[in-house]
Design brief:
The complex is a heterotetramer of chains A (139), B (560), C (328) and D (384).
Chain A (H helix, E strand, L loop, with lengths): L1 H15 L12 H21 L6 H22 L7 H28 L27
Helix pairs in contact in A: 2-3
Chain B lengths: L6 H4 L19 H5 L4 H29 L14 H37 L7 H23 L13 H4 L4 H28 L12 H33 L12 H35 L6 H14 L15 H29 L8 H24 L1 H7 L3 H31 L5 H27 L14 H31 L41 E4 L4 E4 L3
Antiparallel strand pairs in B: 1-2
Chain C lengths: L1 H4 L16 H33 L16 H30 L6 E8 L2 E6 L5 E2 L2 E4 L4 E7 L4 E5 L4 E5 L5 E5 L5 E7 L12 E6 L1 H11 L6 H11 L27 E3 L5 E3 L2 H9 L24 H13 L9
Parallel strand pairs in C: 1-5, 4-10
Antiparallel strand pairs in C: 1-2, 2-3, 5-8, 6-7, 6-9, 9-10, 11-12
Helix pairs in contact in C: 2-3, 5-7
Classes of the chains: A mainly alpha (139), B mainly alpha (560), C alpha+beta (328), D mainly alpha (384).
């Protein structure tokens, strides 16, 4: 990836020579195609790995591949690598806030999952021992 | 010029009688307003709209208080039936929150002032700005529709599962909120871009007036939090249309999840409401004390800090709703982090008055009332942030009193202060200062009389949203109702003072209060393009060169 | 009875009488924060008024226009409140943990919340009551469940509150320390008659509590009385009026219909008789009345009422025709 | 006092102060290199092209931020319910055809490529390539929707509907009478006909501009039906197949080719139940919540896998599935509208190296739509 990066810088300085004003940075075609085929390859990879039963690793692997793909799209297609840092900060902050949202909500869900009513017709008093509280009572 | 008298008394009509060219008479006709791209006209249209919403919300508030004069122990003999009462308090909350407070300062005052204070000609996206206004109007229409159909009785929080099974017009209300959310998002987005890319030469970040810092912080929240409200109410509407079940316990969904979704927006929304008000107060305190703001950077940073911390504390609305214990405690700890930046601001405002020249005119009286009321609101937040006391106070009148002290004693009073402060700039007319001070005094007394008893009510256990109550609470409720009437009277006086000025007010000078920010360097009202010559950007709180000119009744900046 | 309900202001201006062990901690923290607030608030107001007067704009006076900045002062007023806030948080969290950790060996009561009634079921003998009876000086544990929407269980005198969420068990415990009758409120908005979802909690001495539980399991002998007894205990009363002719509650009134044709939501008509009442109780969806289309909000009582209890209810509804008397 | 500003160098601070907005309509030569005269593409309140471009771009990124947070609500719902009832997700994802998902991923990735290429073309003022690339993007979007229509209509036909409307899946269940696919195709068919007429009209009047606009529109209309055809082939063309769920969910790795997803679902769900039972927690529910406790009728008791095959479990999965993919599809449709607008503008040769902001910004939006699909595909279709 670092290799690609340096090439791009060259490509851009080349474009500047053609008299474009300061803010237009046309992407070289070879780079667009490279990124596209990389994305396609990763898609095949993720479909392929889904054939195997990898247990919990499957989620991790799928999401890892998805994140690499998303990174490629954002960095190259969306041109973020050469963009103003503020734009990168904006999109990264959105991801941070999404993780905050998911994180707190999940943290809560872990705590109450076991207090959910599984058998609505059961006698309430049978369930009078709380299980889910993360604060365990002293033994 | 040595004698510093109140600018009010010495205001003289402008010597040249030729009709002045400004944004109000730049063009005429209905379409010139309806299709305008001028941020000032859009701001004025917002102002008219939100004042109308405020009136509507206020009528509902008075209806609530009148109804609660009696304990209504026999629902059939009560003035309002239980179902009507529920609709009244819901509409009061929803209109005040979504249609009034959230757009009040940013959309109305912010739209008018932001480009002028920044020294630009307009916001970055004028069409989007007009679009946000029409989204707001559409939202208003949806709410008006609910008003004339079966009302809405879910409380402004739309808690599931009640909002799923309610027979009232929840769909219209949620779609209204969805649309209003996008109006808010686009306003925030517009302001962020304007401040980031359109500052003129000399306007560095730390030369920006604190009002702009506050609006910037607000805009960050609007952009980051409001989309979550959008998806939440969309899912709620789908829940009613096709029964998707995500929030519906009957379909294995979970109501507490809805609360997480809702408060992820609605807690930061509290800061959407209060941050711009704090910005106004920063301006008012320094201008009317004729003195540079105390600790500029701390106020600026604390605005951003409040905006960011505001995202970490939404769980404190859910302490009793059955969150996991660990989450509850973490949220409580985070809640206290927000109290510190707010405290810093109060101390800094007081520091600004120290050794200044404090002009006790209407905007300043409102600002001082704000400090008094907001401090009470902030301190009572400590009771609710602490877990064990919150267990007792949650969902009681204590909470009602607390957030009215913050939202109304804070935002509304600051909004009124700001309105009086910038009124001469916006309309070109001076108002009667004595009558203005009277209105501030009545509002202050009425407000405290309304909500101080509610702290006691809440602590004694009076739950909120009750159409009837046990008899022991009656005296306190009646006290509160008397206060509400007084408050209504004060607001009426304030409205009359402003209306009166429109027709009989003297012509406002360029800089009646002695402000050093850029909006005081263009004529009142401002010309269509804001400045007839490029403004010199300087320190917005440098009052050393601001001098009073007795002849014009205006302050001016001495050339160095 | 009334004199018992009315709170006694002489016990304190702020709080209702303290009747559980939680009260000590909650009240202490409340007063502590109150005093901290006052200590902050008074100087702020005094400074404000003093500056207002001393530095007011007046002929012959001109203050300094220079902006001030004082780093040590700013640090002080940032750091000192921080420590106070940390202390308040700590005290609050400790008190909360006390409320969250349920002790062993408790008296168990099940709480069923439904629009707009509370129903309590005692583990000792399966008795049920709409008023909560508790023994003094015991750890009480409530296991709570809502049948429809969110409710919240709140006894101000105990300083105890917890939401009751449909689809979940929620637990609450406390330790009553004083005999008497206290208010029990629903504090989470739950629809039309939210403000009438009030009942009482009565704390009794041990013997009286035992006697009360024994009394509770005894159903009245007379079938109509028994129907009325069930009507009041099985959450019928919250929605269906039985007394005023034509009074429209959330559900249809029981009066004035017996033996007549009543219109259904699906457009047909049906005779209001034993069969219809039984269907309505067991399968409310099927028998939804016109004008009450969302009667789906009424839960089915299938499995919750015995046949003879349904018969008693029918007898009670039928009895309303002859002599209407609104049960209070 | 003079303070260094971020944009001070080489620019007149307030270029046109006295002019009002109406006066700004300067003659547009489309190559406004002259900073002292506002060309038509430069709004009056901006100083120069770069400021306008930067503002537009920052605005678009901020809009994308709101989009990410908008979708986050649904991702949150997904994570919560997956976390709570993993066996439901195993049961239900067997009903999703991963081939269709993969094809759609490819189509969207290709459209991202053409969109990025279009941005390049607009910067270099290659009008023909620009219109072609925008047309290709539009076509891909239409094809995506075509495949999606097949997917949706197939599911609706066998009762895989969200929440309350979910129909428990039974072997040999009768097919629905309604042909949802035809209903979904009505609007695209009408539009295609209109585009065809428009194209013929543009040929008749021999307007190069109209041909440039009509061509891509017509192609995209046809692409939708290509997508429908492709979807039908991949769906196995088994609308007349033996059982409702179709035979698409092959899972050769598990060793039972052509396994009925129902059987599979039963197996996995039972496995999950057994596994969790050891921990003393039963994830198994008869139906939804307490309000629903009369819902299970005699007929329903005969349904295979009734523990997860009901409205509260599988129905909830399909709620999340339809919400996520539906909102995504709405974004695709919105994107198609703005791309059409771009094609019109591009055909008028409005874009050049100083003014390509609209193409760039629509491109950013389009890539975000792709970005979200990149996550939706594995989360919904792949992870079992």
């Amino acid at each position: 990836m670092a290799d690609t990066h340096s090439h791009t810088a060259d490509a851009h300085s080349g474009d500047h020579g053609h008299g474009h004003s300061g803010f237009s940075h046309p992407m070289p075609i070879w780079m667009l195609l490279t990124v596209f085929f990389a994305l396609l390859g990763l898609t095949f990879l993720t479909v392929f790995q889904a054939q195997f039963d990898l247990g919990n690793m499957e989620i991790v692997l799928s999401l890892l591949i998805a994140t690499i793909k998303a990174g490629l799209v954002i960095a190259f297609f969306m041109h973020l690598l050469w963009d103003k840092p503020l734009n990168a900060i904006a999109i990264l902050s959105s991801l941070i806030f999404v993780s905050l949202f998911l994180g707190f909500t999940l943290m809560d869900a872990q705590g109450y999952n076991e207090r959910l009513i599984m058998d609505p017709n059961g006698d309430l008093l049978e369930r009078s021992q709380p299980k889910g509280s993360l604060v365990k009572k002293s033994e | 010029m040595s004698a510093v008298t109140s600018p009010m008394t010495t205001t003289v009509a402008s010597p040249d009688k030729s009709p002045e060219h400004h944004y109000l008479n730049h063009s005429s006709g209905f379409l010139s307003w309806a299709l305008t791209l001028d941020h000032k006209r859009i701001g004025m249209m917002y102002l008219a709209g939100i004042l109308f919403s405020f009136f509507l919300g206020g009528v509902f508030a008075l209806a609530i208080r009148i109804h609660l004069w009696n304990p209504n122990l026999d629902p059939e003999a009560a003035w309002l039936s239980n179902a009507t009462y529920n609709r009244v308090f819901t509409l009061h909350g929803a209109i005040m929150v979504f249609l009034f407070i959230i757009p009040s300062v940013p959309a109305a005052l912010g739209n008018f002032l932001l480009p002028i204070m920044l020294g630009t000609k307009d916001v970055a996206f004028p069409r989007l700005n007009l679009g946000s206004f029409y989204l707001w109007v559409t939202g208003l229409l949806f709410f008006t529709y609910t008003l004339f159909s079966s009302g809405i009785d879910t409380g402004w929080t739309f808690y599931t599962p009640y909002s799923i099974e309610s027979k009232s017009a929840v769909e219209a209300a949620t779609l209204g909120v969805f649309i209003l959310g996008f109006s808010s998002i686009f306003t925030g987005l517009n302001f962020i871009v304007t401040i980031n890319t359109m500052r003129p030469p000399g306007m560095t970040w730390f030369k920006m007036p604190l009002f702009l810092w506050a609006v910037y912080a607000t805009s960050i929240i609007q952009v980051l939090a409001t989309p979550v409200l959008g998806i939440t109410v969309l899912l709620l509407a789908l829940e009613r249309f096709i029964g998707i079940g995500i929030f519906d316990p009957a379909l294995n969904g979970d109501p507490v999840t809805f609360q997480h979704f809702f408060w992820f927006y609605s807690h930061p929304a509290v800061y959407i409401m209060i941050l711009p008000a704090m910005g106004i107060i920063s301006e008012l305190m320094s201008v009317h004390s004729h003195k540079g703001i105390f600790g500029y950077r701390m106020i600026a940073y604390s605005s951003i800090a409040i905006a960011l911390f505001g995202f970490l504390v939404w769980g404190h609305h859910m302490f009793t709703s059955g969150m996991a214990d660990v989450t509850t405690i973490v949220f409580s700890a985070l809640t206290f982090t927000v109290s510190i930046p707010s405290a810093i601001k109060v101390f800094n405002w007081l520091g600004t008055m120290y050794q200044g020249t404090v002009a006790l005119n209407t905007p300043m009286i409102y600002a001082l009332a704000f400090i008094f009321l907001f401090t009470i609101g902030g301190l009572t937040g400590l009771f609710l942030g602490a877990l064990s006391t919150d267990m007792h106070l949650h969902d009681t009148y204590f909470v009602v009193a607390h957030f009215h002290y913050v939202m109304m004693g804070g935002t509304l009073v600051a909004f009124l202060g700001g309105l009086f402060h910038w009124w001469p700039k916006m309309t070109g007319k001076m108002f009667n200062d004595t009558a203005g001070i009277l209105s501030a005094a009545i509002v202050f007394v009425g407000f405290n009389l309304t909500f101080l008893p509610q702290f006691v009510l809440g602590t004694r256990g009076m739950p909120r949203r009750y159409a009837s109550y046990v008899r022991e609470f009656q005296q306190l409720h009646q006290l509160s109702t008397i206060g509400a009437m007084t408050l209504g009277l004060g607001l009426l006086v304030a409205g009359l003072v402003l209306l009166h000025s429109l027709f009989y007010g003297k012509k406002a000078p360029m800089n009646p209060w002695g402000g050093a920010t850029l909006e005081w360097e263009c004529s009142s009202p401002p010309p269509h393009d804001n400045f007839s010559s490029p403004p010199t950007v300087g320190d917005p709180y440098d009052f050393t060169s601001v001098e009073y000119d007795g002849k014009t009744g205006s302050y001016f900046k001495k050339k160095k | 009875m009334n004199s018992l309900i009315l709170a006694d202001i002489s016990e304190g201006f702020w709080f209702p009488p303290a009747a559980s062990t939680f009260a000590k901690q909650v009240d202490f923290l409340y007063y502590a924060i109150l005093w901290i607030s006052i200590i902050f608030f008074i100087p702020i107001v005094i400074a404000m008024i003093y500056f207002m007067v001393k530095y007011r704009q007046r002929p012959g006076y001109k203050g300094s226009p220079e902006a001030l900045h004082n780093t040590p002062l700013e640090i002080t007023w940032t750091v000192v409140p921080s420590f106070i806030a940390i202390w308040i948080f700590w005290e609050g969290a400790v008190g909360y943990l006390d409320m969250a950790i349920i002790p062993d060996d408790t008296v168990d009561v099940a709480v069923y919340a439904a629009k707009w009634n509370w129903n309590f079921k005692y583990k000792e003998n399966g008795a049920e009551s709409p008023i909560l009876y508790l023994p003094i000086d015991k750890d009480i544990k409530l296991t709570m469940q809502s049948k429809d929407v969110l409710h919240s269980f709140f006894i101000p005198a105990f300083r105890a509150k917890r939401d009751v969420v449909p689809g979940r068990y929620h637990y609450l415990w406390f330790h009553p320390t004083r005999e008497g009758v206290f208010d029990l409120f629903c504090t989470e908005y739950c629809g039309d008659n939210h403000s009438t979802m009030i009942t009482k909690v009565q704390v009794l001495s041990d013997e009286k509590y035992k006697a009360k539980l024994a009394e509770l399991v005894k159903e009245p002998e007379d079938i109509v009385e028994r129907g009325k007894w069930l009507y009041e205990r099985k959450a019928c009363k919250g929605c269906h009026y039985a007394g005023t002719e034509g009074a429209k509650g959330p559900g249809p009134s029981y009066n004035g219909s017996w033996g007549k044709k009543v219109p259904l939501a699906n457009g047909t008509e049906v005779t209001f008789d034993e069969n219809y009442v039984k269907t309505s109780i067991l399968n409310p969806m099927e028998a939804a009345r016109k004008g009450y289309e969302t009667a789906s909000a009424m839960p089915s009582y299938k499995g919750q009422l015995k046949d003879e209890q349904i018969d008693a209810l029918i007898a009670f509804i039928r009895s309303l025709e002859s002599g209407p008397a609104r049960p209070k | 006092m003079k303070i260094e500003s971020p944009r001070q160098q080489g620019r007149h601070p307030f270029p046109k102060f006295q002019k009002t907005m109406t006066e700004v309509a300067a003659p547009a030569d489309g190559h406004g290199h002259d900073h002292h005269d506002h060309p038509s593409w430069l709004a009056h309140h901006f100083d120069d092209a770069e400021q306008q471009y930067d503002s537009g771009k920052l605005g678009m990124w901020l809009f994308l931020v709101t989009e990410v947070l908008f979708f986050s609500g649904m991702f949150c719902a997904y994570v919560l319910y997956r976390n709570r009832n993993p066996e439901v997700f195993e049961f239900c994802s067997a009903f999703l055809n991963e081939k269709l998902g993969a094809i759609n991923t490819g189509v969207l990735l290709f459209s991202s490529l053409t969109m990025a290429w279009a941005v390049r073309a607009s910067q270099l003022k290659q009008t023909k390539i620009l219109v072609g690339m925008l047309g290709a993007t539009l076509g891909c979007a239409a094809m995506f929707l075509g495949v999606k229509s097949v997917e949706y209509s197939h599911k609706w036909g066998i009762g895989l509907l969200p929440g309350r409307y979910y129909v428990a899946q039974v072997e040999n269940a009768p097919h629905a009478e309604t042909n949802y696919l035809q209903m979904l195709c009505v609007i695209p068919a009408i539009l295609s006909a209109v585009f065809l007429l428009y194209y013929v009209y543009s040929l008749v009047i021999a307007s190069k501009f109209h041909q440039r606009v009509a061509g891509p529109l017509l192609v995209s209309g046809l692409c939708f039906f290509a997508g429908v055809g492709l979807g039908n082939i991949l769906e196995g063309g088994e609308h007349h197949d033996e059982h409702g769920a179709g035979s698409h969910a092959h899972d050769d790795a598990h060793g039972h080719a052509h396994a009925d997803p129902l059987v599979q679902g039963v197996a996995t769900a039972e496995k999950a139940t057994v596994e969790t039972a050891d921990e003393g927690i039963s994830f198994v529910k008869t139906s939804g919540g307490p309000v629903n406790d009369v819902a299970v009728t005699k007929e329903e008791e005969g349904i295979p896998n009734s523990k997860v095959n009901n409205q509260g479990m599988a129905g909830l999965f399909f709620s999340i599935y339809y919400c996520m993919t539906g909102v995504h599809a709405v974004h695709i449709i919105g994107g198609m509208l703005v791309i059409t607008w771009l094609i019109v503008k591009a055909s008028r040769e409005e874009f050049h190296s100083e003014y390509f902001g609209p193409v760039d910004n629509v491109g950013l939006y389009w890539h975000l739509v792709d970005f979200i699909w990149i996550y939706l595909f594995p989360l919904l279709y792949l992870i079992t």
